């Protein structure tokens, strides 16, 4: 049964956060879709007569809101895929169908007609295939972006750390600390808090990935995302030891095995741990990796570290609702970036070569219609699952689950 599948998958996560995850998933069918990536791939992998596609590195949980802006390690702002927790080596079309399904699910939630959603899905598939055919990965930054994405990136460039700090910190006496009135910040046990602060101070002092000349001033538990709600996640406030009023915010997120792992037959590299897998896949798929991207182990768990940035924004499709031209531009860019991430990582550890991906893109007429049909059916299944979930949630089935 659906409720048992969801409860079983979330076992081992933080109990108090699991309840928040279930609550968040009640918002709409798209939020439910984001929180049930494992369920989507269980059903996708079970399909018979699935169209063949070459192996590629995929982020695994690609949907409309897993694209966004961020500052790269070169201090420039980019628009790209931004979530690699589920990253894995798998058929290239798995990534495509996940994204196309998200188009039908999201536009259903936005009450956009099926014909319009289908046209956008076709645009995505055609643009994805067309980019593969060119065999050259493309990056998107403010100088090369167009339309709504260009505006999105220009806005991201104007934001600064002072704005971010104003939202997430407060002044206590003569100190600046992280604010517990922020809706996504939660207080930590004193012992755990000290252990975390000492750990990151040691990481800063010993890791080549860390920012130099900074000290930890505060840490809170951070609530973020949908599918990742329930994992251990912390936000650190770092202060420069050299410059006055120079702060950084560092996100530390617990890593798990990809939920796609039970669904794939392909041999995977022997990663050191889940954090090693996530970092390796992110570095090979993104045009430029995010600032302060690193890893650490704490109390037996592995974590990915990354700077929390004032320009890091998820692309919210509500921004373009009602403007079809903006929708077209955004979907086209997402297709280009999807193909580019696969081209960029082509030929690595078992993934298809660029020539193989080019040949596959050239045969889009052989698999395009089937991809659209599978995605439509997956969106309908998601809607049914969501309705069943809402009924069980209201009946208290998910209450007090651990």
Automatic annotation (TrEMBL):
<dbReference type="Pfam" id="PF10009">
    <property type="entry name" value="DUF2252"/>
</dbReference>
<protein>
    <submittedName>
        <fullName>DUF2252 domain-containing protein</fullName>
    </submittedName>
</protein>
<dbReference type="InterPro" id="IPR018721">
    <property type="entry name" value="DUF2252"/>
</dbReference>
């Amino acid at each position: 049964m659906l409720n048992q599948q969801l409860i079983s998958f979330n076992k081992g996560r933080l109990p108090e956060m699991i309840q928040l995850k279930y609550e968040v998933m009640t918002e709409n069918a798209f939020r439910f879709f984001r929180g049930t990536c494992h369920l989507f791939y269980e059903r996708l992998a079970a399909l018979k007569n699935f169209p063949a596609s070459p192996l590629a590195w995929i982020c695994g949980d690609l949907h409309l809101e897993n694209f966004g802006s961020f500052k790269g390690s070169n201090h420039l702002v980019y628009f790209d895929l931004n979530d690699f927790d589920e990253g894995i080596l798998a058929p290239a079309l798995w990534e495509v169908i996940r994204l196309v399904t998200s188009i039908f699910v999201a536009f259903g939630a936005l009450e956009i007609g099926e014909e319009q959603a289908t046209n956008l899905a076709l645009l995505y598939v055609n643009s994805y295939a067309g980019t593969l055919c060119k065999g050259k990965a493309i990056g998107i930054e403010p100088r090369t972006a167009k339309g709504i994405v260009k505006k999105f990136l220009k806005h991201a460039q104007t934001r600064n750390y002072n704005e971010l700090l104003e939202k997430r910190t407060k002044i206590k006496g003569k100190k600046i600390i992280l604010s517990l009135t922020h809706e996504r910040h939660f207080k930590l046990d004193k012992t755990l808090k000290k252990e975390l602060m000492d750990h990151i101070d040691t990481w800063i002092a010993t890791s080549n990935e860390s920012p130099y000349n900074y000290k930890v001033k505060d840490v809170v538990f951070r609530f973020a995302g949908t599918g990742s709600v329930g994992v251990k996640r912390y936000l650190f406030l770092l202060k420069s030891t050299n410059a006055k009023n120079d702060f950084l915010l560092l996100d530390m997120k617990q890593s798990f095995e990809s939920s796609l792992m039970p669904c794939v037959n392909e041999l995977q590299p022997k990663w050191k741990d889940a954090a090693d897998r996530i970092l390796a896949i992110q570095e090979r798929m993104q045009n430029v990796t995010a600032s302060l991207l690193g890893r650490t182990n704490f109390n037996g768990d592995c974590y990915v570290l990354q700077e929390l940035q004032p320009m890091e924004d998820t692309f919210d499709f509500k921004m373009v609702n009602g403007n079809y031209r903006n929708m077209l531009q955004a979907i086209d860019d997402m297709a280009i970036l999807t193909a580019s991430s696969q081209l960029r990582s082509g030929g690595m550890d078992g993934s298809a070569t660029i020539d193989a991906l080019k040949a596959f893109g050239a045969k889009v007429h052989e698999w395009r219609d089937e991809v659209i049909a599978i995605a439509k059916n997956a969106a309908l299944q998601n809607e049914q699952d969501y309705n069943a979930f809402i009924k069980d949630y209201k009946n208290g089935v998910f209450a007090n689950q651990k």
